[in-house]
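User: Can you recover a sequence for this backbone? Please restate the input before giving your answer.

Assistant: Of course. Working from this structure:
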């Protein structure tokens, strides 16, 4: 069942349950932190951006997240030509909403995470997203050190996105409200040392993973994302499952020329003992069959017994086919794509 939401509605009712679960092309649900019926330390809020150059074979990712008892800022540089990455991150204790992450992805806002290790600022105004950033510690594969830059992402008002609101079977007050915005044209540049990395808005793109919710204690999820050009039109892909009860709707979509094409269930086939082996993706409606050849595995792991996280974010080139709602088939050939396999216990 794929329940599409097409009109504005509150996210939570007075009991803290989602009013209407499903998916949408725009963020129709209204999120209010005060409506959540859970310990404030269980509330999770995050804004995560990825920006890649398919021609230059480099990219960046940015994280500002408030996990209740921990706040995180992270900045990662990727060099796909050299199978290299370098991440710098920092934590703050018990932010509990103080990072100022906005209640709406489309609200005009300016938020920052600043520490000795890194600085990230997000600014949103209608039609564009601005990311300013620096880190004295980031190095590239050539040994250059010290990163700084500004990137502007274009988000046209009519650009459709993948939005989902679902809860957990074991606790219906635990919920996942998420928007994935793919295929935002990227312009701007950054430097590492004296080396300049330039984005070309005719080819390079960014994406946003915007999420708010209350999670259950232990979860494993799978996610894949693509933002690219295909024969002169923008092509995005968002695949995901394993996180919350997806019986009302999946978050599996194709974005083509600004419009969402909805898929049914998708399965990731991979070797959990070696994430650098080939990955395969298939859909239950036979509208997707892809193979990803990994380039690098950005790993992170911490284990404090009660709190535990094991993350594999794999970047590579994807090939295969997609089928649009019209029945038209798109053939993909070696486009940069991200997939991940994450276990969290917190």
């Amino acid at each position: 069942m794929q329940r599409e939401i097409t009109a504005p509605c509150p996210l939570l009712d007075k009991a803290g349950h989602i009013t209407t679960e499903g998916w949408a092309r725009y963020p129709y649900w209204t999120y209010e932190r005060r409506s959540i019926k859970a310990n404030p330390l269980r509330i999770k809020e995050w804004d995560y951006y990825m920006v890649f150059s398919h021609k230059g074979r480099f990219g960046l990712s940015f994280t500002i997240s408030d996990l209740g008892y921990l706040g995180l800022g992270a900045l990662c540089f990727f060099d796909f030509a050299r199978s290299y990455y370098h991440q710098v991150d920092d934590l703050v204790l018990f932010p509990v909403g103080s990072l100022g992450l906005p209640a709406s992805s489309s609200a005009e806002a300016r938020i920052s995470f600043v520490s000795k290790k890194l600085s990230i600022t997000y600014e949103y105004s209608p039609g564009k997203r601005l990311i300013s950033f620096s880190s004295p510690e980031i190095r590239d594969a050539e040994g250059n050190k010290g990163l700084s830059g500004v990137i502007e992402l274009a988000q046209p008002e009519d650009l459709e996105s993948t939005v989902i609101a679902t809860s957990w079977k074991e606790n219906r007050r635990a919920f996942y409200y998420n928007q994935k915005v793919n295929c935002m044209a990227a312009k701007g540049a950054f430097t590492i040392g004296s080396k300049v990395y330039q984005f070309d808005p005719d080819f390079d793109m960014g994406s946003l993973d915007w999420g708010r919710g209350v999670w259950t204690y232990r979860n494993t999820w799978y996610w894949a994302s693509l933002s690219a050009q295909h024969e002169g039109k923008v092509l995005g892909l968002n695949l995901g499952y394993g996180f919350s009860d997806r019986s009302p709707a999946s978050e599996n979509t194709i974005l083509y020329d600004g419009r969402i094409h909805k898929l049914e269930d998708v399965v990731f086939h991979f070797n959990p003992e070696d994430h650098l082996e080939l990955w395969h993706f298939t859909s239950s409606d036979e509208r997707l069959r892809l193979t990803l050849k990994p380039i690098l595995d950005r790993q992170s792991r911490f284990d404090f017994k009660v709190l535990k996280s094991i993350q594999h974010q794999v970047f590579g080139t994807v090939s295969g086919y997609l089928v649009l709602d019209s029945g038209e088939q798109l053939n993909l050939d070696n486009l940069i794509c991200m997939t991940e396999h994450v276990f969290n216990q917190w």
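That completes the design. The two ends are 30 Å apart (CA to CA).
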